[in-house]
Amino acid sequence: MSVQHKRRFAEVLFLFIFLILLEAQPLWAETLPLPREGEPWLYAQDLSFQPDDELNLRCLGQSYPEIQGLERRSDGLWLVLVGGLRVLYAGERVGRDYYDVDVRTSMAQPYVCEPERPETPAGYAPGRRRSYDLLHALYGHNAASVARSLQHVRALGQNWTFAPKAAEAFRRAAMVLEGKVAVHPELRPWLKSSGTFSWRRIAGQTVLSAHSFGIAFDIGVGRGATYWRWSALTRHPLQQTFSPDIVLAFEDEGFIWGGKWHEFDLMHFEYRPELICKAKRRHSQQTPRPASVPQARW
User: Which CATH architecture has domain 132-284?
Assistant: First the structure.
């Protein structure tokens, strides 16, 4: 190869590397404060933000203290976590699975808490589309890293395994349910576990199950709680009749229920406190409360 060809090859290689680095780095970045409880919303006139973003970001900050800030960059809005890790809050994602979305999209469909049992038209499944970048950042990037932080919980006469915050929330819900079971022993068979942590993909999909992160559990299978792929029904009677005492106890501690999805998963509860926070705050904004009634902690 002649000197001229070598020079030309080096120039092309340099340009190729430069373009790769340029694509990997934002053209510009601006650090923004994450709205905290009691602080004003500063971005009402900012076109980078949508109407739901104030509530989304407040609930994310409340649910996950690991989220320390917000960064606006040329390639979107990013959550900044402890240690400097960044997770896409809102921006374009190319080549990702339909169920693997940015955080804003993962919170877009409104979850509805008890006592309401919403209609579940096709496509309605709040929380079923997840930000896997956020889940990995919070709980671990592989089975081993998730497993290292798991906690074992003895509750409701059984052993359960969860990520630490889900474990704390589950313990509180289980204490409430022990009281319910003492009065209504017919509830106990519905609380029999069919699984917690399991690093695996969702059946028929390429994305991981929430069980992979230690934030989900299944109950009630022996009482008929089933899954849409196993049923010929498009709407299952248990979506209306599953015990409200059970669903309410878990929702009050940050767990969503798969019975409120069109593609129902009647056995499935999943720790998504940001969605419960958003649901409860929306409800409190829409429903006037007497001054004597204490505000929900969400």
Answer: 2-Layer Sandwich (3.30)
